[in-house]
Each structure stands twice: as C-alpha cells, then as structure tokens.
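I hope you will forgive my troubling you with a question about protein structure. Here, with my thanks, is the record as I have it:
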Amino acid sequence: MKNLVIIIFTILCAFQVNAQQDPQYTQYMYNMNIINPAYTGSTESLAVGALYRSQWVGLDGGPETFTFNIHSPVGKKVGLGLSIIADQIGPVKETNTYVDFSYTIPVGTVTKLAFGVKGGFTFHDIAIAEWQITTIDPGDPFFANAINETTPNVGAGVYFYKPSKYYISVSIPNILNSVHINANGTKIGSESEHAFAAAGYVFDLSENFKLKPHTLIKYAFDTPISYDINANVFMYDIVEVGVGYRFEDSFSGMINFQVMDNLRIGYAYDAIQSDLDIVTNSSHEIFINFDLNFSSKVSRSPRYF
C-alpha cells in the first residue's frame, strides 16, 4: 500500500457515503468516560486516564487514536470532567474536546443512577498537501492546502451501576449531525450520531478470582450494528487477563495490572479477522488509569470498571 492516494480516496469515499465512524476501543470498560459523560465522577476520586490505539498495524494511514480524560465528583451528586479524543486516519485528523457533567441519584442503598451531558468542539483537519502524493487532478485547488473546520457538538448518557459489582451504560456522545468539509458539493468528514450501550458484571469465583464479562454495542445511524463481547478474569486484585470478540472484525486478548491501589496499566492485542487481513493482521492498544483518592478511608476496593 505504498501508493497512499488509494487510501486517501478510499477514506474520502467512505466519509461521503456513510459518514465518519467514531473510534473503537477494545478496553472500553476502562475508558468509559470517553463514550458516556454520565460516568463522570463515578469513581469517587479524581480519576485520570489515557489510552493510545494503533489500528490496522502495517496499513499506511491506518487509524491512530489517543484519548485523555480527567474527572472527579464535586459534592455528593455532581461530577465534572474533561475528555479529549485525537483521531487520525491518513491525512484526516479530528480532535474532540469536551467538558463533561453528571448528576447522580441513589437508587436503593448502594445502587446509583447517573445522568450526564457533554459539550465541546470538534477540530477537523485534512492535511492533504503534507502527504505529497499524486492526485487525479494535480491542478485542483482542493488538494493544494490543508483544510480546517471547527464545529460544536454535544452528547448525553445514562449510567446505572452498583460500585464494584455491575454497570449498565447507554449514551450518544455526538448528538449533532454535522459536515466538517463541503468541497464543491462533496461531503467529506461528515459526522453522524453514534449510540453506545455497554454492560458489565463481577462474579466472585473465589476469594482471589473474579470473572468480569462485558459487552458493548455500537450503532452509527445508516450503518450496521457492531458489538464486542469480552470475558476477563481478575486474580488476586493484581492482574487481569481477558479475551474478546468484535463482530466480523477481530479476536482480542488483553492484560492489565493493578500496579498500586490507585494505578492500573493495560495492553490489548486485536487479531484481525475481516477482509483487511490481507494487508494487516493486528491492532494494539495501551491505557493507564490513575485515581487520586481524597477520602479519609484507610483502604478502598479495587476499581473494576
């Protein structure tokens, strides 16, 4: 795939027909604040997280995604946070910056229900000129310069959970349907709504072993439904290993370590099973989560989600 013009026009055509897809994550259970603002403040501490994903390794111009989030409870019911998603596919760069807000109400003695909203901006950049490639029409001014657009966006979500036991998440992180670039009637980098539904549960197999099944369903309007199924085992409150499957896309393996009570790092490997396996066979993902606990408690339960 050394002739990158093929990739570029494939990307442009895909954007024009189906609109841009939100990034996907294998370790979504530890990156929940990115897709659902209602998760904000649910960890009962100042939580900081970062994730990097290299998708379709070996494919020139393959997607690369970096996320960063920081959030904390403010009082007993309100959570505030900041989330950033930087995504690049070939010459197309998109950065989403949001302020997140949640409001939590108790349901029973332990279970909680949180409502969340997020608002911010999407910065879209198509740096075609920097790629120095041969186009079909070299004289077309559209390909001569970088193209930049900034658009507002908002999102919302609901998060129902019992700490350290289970969660159910439903969200639409991008509600506004927008077209970032409109080149002579051709819609490039258009963005459509994505709906996410996720759930997870912790089964106590023994004192030192816990089984954690998770599932994530993603639906972008006018495109087929995608879903992930995962099964993780957490051992001795230190190491977690898991396997997963993404529908018609890949099988995955993951491992993460509770390095300290407030620090977790993890890695995931996706083995590609789709038609792309002729040009790429894997995707890689790493994350780090850090919690700064302000509580006066001497000890705290491990963070399972």
